[in-house]
Amino acid sequence: MSMTDLLNAEDIKKAVGAFTAVDSFDHKKFFQMVGLKKKSPDDVKKVFHILDKDKSGFIEEDELGFILKGFSPDARDLSMKETKTLMAAGDKDGDGKIGVDEFSSLVAES
Q1: Any known ligand binding at 52?
Q2: 95 known ligand binder
Q3: Which domain of life is it from (predicted)?
């Protein structure tokens, strides 16, 4: 399954394009722009599993830095500051990674 099976390709392109500048990434705005906020809980979980590149059941910090590439292969990497901010917002239990329920909560809070 690819991201465009779940989200509109044009929405992805606009959302990725809105955050091309370093340190401009805002996960709340991004999740809204990409259409993730409007998706069912099941679809949000499917997106999580696409972003979980190593299939560990978690999005670790190194994967989080490449989150935009999960939506569009030519997107930029997040800066260390953006990655740390996103991890702090999503990692509710403090284990240094984001699980599927934490990711779902992160999207719902957007």
Answers
A1: yes
A2: yes
A3: Eukaryota
